[in-house]
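Dear Dr. H.,

I hope your travels went smoothly. While you were away I took the liberty of generating a structure for the chain from your last submission, since the lab meeting agenda had it listed for discussion. I wanted you to have the full record in hand beforehand rather than looking at slides cold. The sequence, exactly as received, is reproduced here:
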Amino acid sequence: MKKRAIIISLGILLLLAAILIPTILIPRPAAGKVAVIPLSGTITTEGSSLFPSSTITPELVRDYLTKVEKDKTVKAIVFRIESPGGEIAPCQEILWEIERIKETKPIVVSMGGTAASGGYYISTQADKIVALPSTLTGSIGVISVIPNIEGLLEKLGIQIETFKGGKYKDMYSGFRELTPEEEEIMQEMVDEYYEQFIDVVAEGRGLSEEEVRNLATGQIYTGTKAKELGLVDELGDLDTAIDLAAELAGIEAPIVEYYQPPGLTLRSLLGFANAIQMRLWGLSAQDIILLETLSHNYPQPRFLYQS
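The corresponding predicted structure, in token form, is as follows:
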């Protein structure tokens, strides 16, 4: 009887071993999250203006990436970019943040309808770039616009008296024409930013400087054409980018977490209230745009696609 009990026990142990050992030895699909981060709007230093439209700021990107770093289960990141670009300095700050996080996690960019100029600039250092066939991208170049309202002021009978210390201090005021010397200064600045853009694209895309320079005419490219030119890696949608990010991270069954953009802030609500107040004063939309343009005393060159 005792011998029989031992045999039964051994049989049970062998049965359990037959069930459990293959389960232990067969590798399980790696688990982990793919974080999808939306970056939509014009790239700027601050996210407020008279028009509280969607913007992308370095602070916003840092907030997203801080959240990613706190979640140890996030193994890869997909940036969903919908942007015509914007100011140069925040484009560079955002790119540095992406390069920093790329040291620890694979990065894939999924382009929406438009990811051009600065929107393309911040995409260049990703491990892979996925675009829709119809995506508008490229627009590699720099633009700077200094409004000259001297004629308008004359028509309105407004005379501006300027007191300055420094020969070029008022060259950005818009109250007079630029001199040939000032135009040369401005063009030199634009050319410097242009060279920086070319360097970033060449490094990120593994292209020669000459190849990038031939593409950097400010021209817009469709996603299909951009793939032919080596500016993007694959054609596809957001799901394509997620699958690619999971593959790069070695995740077979990823959990996809879609990060939500921030809601309305007090600053944006105040900006919206200011715009309404100006309309109540009888100012047209064109008047408000003119006021916002003139409020920027130092018009900056931009990585911006102007459609």
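Two observations you may find useful: The chain has one domain: 25-304. The domain at 25-304 is CATH 3.90.226.10 (2-enoyl-CoA Hydratase; Chain A, domain 1).

With kind regards,
E. W.
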